[in-house]
Write a structure and sequence with these properties.
The protein has 204 residues and is of the alpha/beta class. Helices cover 41% and strands 15% of the residues.
């Protein structure tokens, strides 16, 4: 059955603004982040969702809440799970990215940030993040899409990139070059066979 899946990275957070590694840190949205969430909702106007999923971190939860308020669908069921949390940045969490690059070298920090299977000290690689995201997707989200229901996921840059690898059949090298902008929805159309027939990146 035909269905749609919209994925959204939360709006700008305080650590995004300060150029810090966020990871599991439970930081708030900025004023700009809330505006991005409202703008995202306006871009999704007209889509009717049956279920919503988010992480347990408040920047994603608040973004979803603003989106649902903007599109007038506050009554929808919302499922929160740590499987959709941002990747754990371990010892880098809270550190300024530019200062960390000065300390360890830009090449090493780029490897920690962009590699598929290299973990930052004490943290998760994108591969490890994917190993918790995909089982949750298979068990809880994919069945709804197969039933023809439209689903909205609001989560984080790396948990969503991990899902994108699966949905778009991307290689580790390809995903290393992809960044998800805060508050910008990406919408997947599924055909009757359950395969993706169209992808929209709603930047404007």
């Amino acid at each position: 059955m035909k269905s749609q899946l919209a994925i959204v990275r939360h709006g700008q957070s305080e650590y995004n603004l300060e150029n810090r590694f966020t990871g599991f840190a439970d930081v708030d949205l900025t004023t700009q982040g809330r505006e991005e969430a409202a703008m995202c909702g306006r871009k999704l106007q007209g889509m009717q969702f049956e279920a919503c999923f988010t992480s347990v971190l408040k920047r994603a939860i608040e973004t979803l809440d603003i989106i649902l308020d903007t599109i007038g669908q506050k009554q929808l069921p919302v499922y929160k799970d740590a499987a959709l949390n941002e990747r754990d940045y371990g010892d880098l969490q809270g550190l300024n990215k530019a200062e960390t690059a000065e300390k360890y070298g830009a090449e090493q920090v780029a490897l920690w940030r962009r590699s598929f299977d290299v973990s930052p000290p004490g943290g998760e690689s994108l591969k490890q993040t994917q190993e918790r995201v995909l089982p949750y997707y298979y068990a809880n989200i994919e069945p709804l899409l197969q039933q023809g229901k439209n689903v909205l996921i609001v989560a984080h840059g790396n948990s969503l990139r991990a899902l994108m690898m699966h949905l778009e059949n991307l290689t580790p090298d390809a995903i290393s070059h992809i960044d998800l902008l805060t508050g910008v929805p990406r919408v997947y159309d599924f055909d009757d066979s359950g395969k993706i027939s169209y992808v929209q990146h709603l930047t404007s």
